[in-house]
Amino acid sequence: MDQTIEPGGTPATAAPAHPTVPHRPLTVPAGEAEARARAFHEVMDRRRTVRDFSDRPLPEGVVEWAIRTAATAPSGAHVQPWRFVVLTDPERKRRLREAAEAEEREFYARRASPEWLEALAPLGTDWSKPFLETAPAVIVVFEVHKGPDSPRPYYTKESVGISVGLLLATLHQAGLATLTHTPSPMRFLNEVCDRPPEERAAYVVPVGYPAEDARVPDLRRKSLEQVMVRL
User: Fold this and answer.
1) What is the pLDDT at residue 17?
2) How far, in Å, CA of 159 to CA of 81, rounded?
3) Closest CA to 206 of 35, 10, 50, 17
4) Which residues contact 104 (CB under 8 A, 6 or more apart)?
5) Is 229 within a domain?
6) Which 8-state DSSP code applies to residue 142?
7) For 217, which of 10, 21, 37, 46 is 20 to 30 Å away at the CA?
8) H/E stretch holding 139
């Protein structure tokens, strides 16, 4: 611990510049670490983006716990520049769908390049977004920028992106399906969600159970050798 010298030569313990608390690490025996990591991978490897949702109600408290987990993400300067707006009101979700589909029509008809549309073709996406109404909840994630009641954030997109990753993982662990929808531009979401201008929408995440007849594209993830470099 740092020390200072008091007048007369007596050492004194210096108070830390900022308060700290003892770290509470998750203790895992070395022999179990790989098995735990593998088990988590096997669960997450079954996660898929779903576009066909059931209107089955969500279990009580699951969304709240998922957002609590998302809010544990690291953030630049610990500013925590995120806001999670949960839409469950049918009228509010209808307004969201109408506004999102208006932007998506423009995207598919005029904004997207031929190369972009070709890349999207295997996914079977188009401007129609019925899941925004069918899913029992839609979480709209906002980046919180500097405003009258919010400090300047740092590494905002990176921080919010990490938090959304934790959100998706937690909801999947709870047996729920999700989709990350990013209509562009997104300013209409401030009106739909009653948010101030310093908050900027980044993700729209429908949450629910997949429909019984839900199907997903037959895709393959890259292998470890394709995504990892060991030096």
Assistant:
1) 82
2) 7
3) 50
4) 126, 127, 128, 129, 183
5) no
6) E
7) 37
8) strand 137-144
Provide the token pair at 58: 């969500």
DSSP per-residue codes, 51-88 = --B--PPPPTTHHHHHHHHHTTS--BTT---EEEEEE-
Which run of H or E residues covers position 168?
helix 156-173
Domain count, the chain: 1
CATH number of the domain at 89, please: 3.40.109.10
Side-chain half-sphere exposure of 140, counting CA atoms within 13 A? 25
Q: Considering the domain boundaries, does residue 131 fall inside one?
A: yes
CA angle (168, 99, 121) in 5-degree steps:
60
Using CA atoms, how far apart are residues 52 and 41, in angstroms rounded to an integer?
Answer: 24
116-152 pLDDT, tens per residue?
A: 999 999 888 999 999 999 999 999 999 999 998 889 9
**Taking Cα atoms as reference points, which of 85, 28, 27, 88 lies closest to residue 55?**
88
137: enclosing H helix or E strand: strand 137-144
- Residue 197: inside a domain: yes
Token couple for 31: 């022999």
